[in-house]
Design brief:
The structure is a single chain. Helix content is about 35%, strand content about 15%. The protein contains eight helices and nine strands. Strands 4-3-1-8-9 form a five-stranded mixed beta sheet, with helices on both faces. It has a two-stranded antiparallel ribbon with strand order 2-5.
């Protein structure tokens, strides 16, 4: 299993394409987490899915039964940022580059991993959990992300997370020795999304 030389961190999107698409990721989050950390992540995913009344299936918990429509994450998400990342940038990415998506449902998902449709973001409340970015942070997402970065052997992290998503993983940098480049777009608000997508495309192409 090849490691990840450059890891880009981006937020998920509330807007998603419907339907299903064939294909499974060659590698995914479970390949880059120690067993205990992945078990912790699965428990958190199940808690969020239960609060959102989503059916169990192997995309959330490998031991679960059930079927849902799945599509690779980079195709499923359809927000403004994702619309500025050309398909060829995703599919012809430079060697050793991958994208980790911080997700309100999955916690973490690599860009090729198959995911379902869900209708909430880190900024929202779920019954019994509260605001999701706070819930995920308090339930270990920063430590899980740091563990993934270390296990993957990343040499560089490019952090393109938006405010609520950065809150969800606040503290992940504290135990890392690798350089983290945090890119922000102050004053742009929602207009930052095209710029964020263009920056992701540059890294995928090995130009940044």
């Amino acid at each position: 299993m090849a490691g990840i030389r450059v890891l880009v961190l981006i937020p998920d999107s509330t807007r998603k394409r419907k339907g299903s698409a064939a294909g499974m990721a060659a590698t995914g989050v479970p390949d880059f987490l120690p067993r205990a950390d992945f078990a912790h992540l699965v428990d958190a995913r199940k808690a969020v899915a239960a609060a959102a009344r989503l059916p169990p299936a192997p995309d959330l918990d490998p031991s679960a039964r059930g079927e849902v429509d799945l599509m690779p994450a980079y195709q499923r998400y359809d927000g403004n940022m994702y619309r500025y990342i050309p398909r060829e940038a995703w599919e012809s990415r430079a060697a050793g580059v991958d994208v980790e998506i911080v997700s309100a449902l999955y916690g973490l998902v690599l860009s090729r991993e198959p995911i379902r449709v869900y209708g909430f973001s880190m900024a929202e409340d779920l019954p019994g959990l509260g605001v999701l970015h706070k819930w995920w942070r308090e339930n270990g997402l920063p430590e899980i992300l740091a563990s993934l970065i270390r296990t993957a052997g990343a040499e560089r992290v490019v952090d393109l997370l938006s405010l609520e998503y950065r809150k969800a993983v606040d503290g992940y940098r504290d135990s890392l020795a690798v350089p983290v480049e945090a890119i922000d777009f102050p004053g742009l608000g929602r207009a930052s999304q095209p710029r964020r997508g263009e920056a992701v495309a540059e890294v995928l192409r090995g130009k940044r």
